[in-house]
Amino acid sequence: MSTEAKPRVRIPRGPIEEPPGPYAGHGPAANREVLFLALERCGVKVGEFDRRTIGALAVLGSSTALTVASWLLQSAEGQPD
Taking a C-beta distance cutoff of 8 angstroms, is the pair 38, 73 a contact? Predict the structure, then answer.
């Protein structure tokens, strides 16, 4: 198990008008963590292809990762329990 601290990132809420990020520790590994965190918060289960797709999104940059994470969280918040 890794003892490395996870990056503290504020995922934007609402419509995004300007590119978000970068954040401290940003990079593909941190971007993957942001995406996995958002998926986890939404209760989404991921498979192997999902992991590969998240990896592909992560290399597109912190702005992409934060925007996708924002969409996920907004979608989950908008659904009734």
Answer: yes
- Tell me, rounded to whole angstroms, the distance of Cα 51 from its chain centroid: 12
Q: What does the mean pLDDT of the chain come to?
A: 86
Tell me the whole-structure pTM to 2 decimals: 0.81
Cα separations (Å) of 48 from 26, 35, 54, 55? 23, 15, 10, 11
Residue found by looking up tokens 């292809």 in the block: 49
Which of 50-55's residues contact partners 24+ apart within 8 Å by CB, and which partners?
A: 55/28
Q: How far apart are CA 30 and CA 36, in angstroms?
A: 10
CA distances from 50 to 2, 3, 14, 45 (A): 22, 25, 25, 9
